[in-house]
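Thread amino acids onto this structure.
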């Protein structure tokens, strides 16, 4: 089976390891074989604490999940800012008059149209 392991240790910096594993291999075995834990020694500790999450093609998984051919294991960092809070801050910075539904108002039109 061909498996890829991806990890982005920081913003805009992603690394990928390509592996050949036997049928019935698990996520844990793929992480060990890839060398990602050797390159980033803090990964096992962060996984144990629950600070990192694992996924296969964008779906959360666990280390004991059996892999299929062409799977991509993704290691997710925690979010630094809640996306809703970030959106509110961007909107607040732009101002109500220049963003959202009220940015382009027709003469004589109703609010929001």
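Threaded sequence (113 positions):
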């Amino acid at each position: 089976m061909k498996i890829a392991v991806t990890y982005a240790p920081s913003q805009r910096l992603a690394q990928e390891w390509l592996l050949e594993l036997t049928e019935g291999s698990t996520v844990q075995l793929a992480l060990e074989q890839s060398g990602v834990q050797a390159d980033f020694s803090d990964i096992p500790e962060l996984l144990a604490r629950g600070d990192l999450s694992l996924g296969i093609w964008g779906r959360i998984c666990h280390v004991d999940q059996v892999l299929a051919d062409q799977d991509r294991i993704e290691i997710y960092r925690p979010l630094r800012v809640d996306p809703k809070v970030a959106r509110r801050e961007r909107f607040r910075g732009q101002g109500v008059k220049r963003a959202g539904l009220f940015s382009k108002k027709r003469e004589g039109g109703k609010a929001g149209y």
